[in-house]
Design brief:
By secondary structure, the protein is mostly beta strands. It contains no helices and eleven strands.
Amino acid sequence: QVQLVESGGGLVQAGGSLRLSCAASGSMFKVNVMGWYRQAPGKQRELVAAISSLGRLNYADSVKGRFTISRDNAKNTVYLQMNSLKPEDTAVYYCALTTLAANDYWGQGTQVTVSS
């Protein structure tokens, strides 16, 4: 079993920054993709950013140029640096991990609130 522990959410004013972290631990596994999703009230969960084990990046258009995803493979940890935050970035952010065996795991979510 894989556990994902997120940290770094909170309340910030528009234009501010936050950094989310997600550390994976548990049974032996090979990580393929790690990423962040978010879900705002009344909306579907959406991909924010993802990074593969080879460093391939994928960003939602709405966050390109403002958010940066990175990972430390040795620590099985993924980060999301969020700059120039907007009120529409307000959501619960979930860490996600897909193993090479194509198993998906999710974190418990961390709230990000951006005030105008």
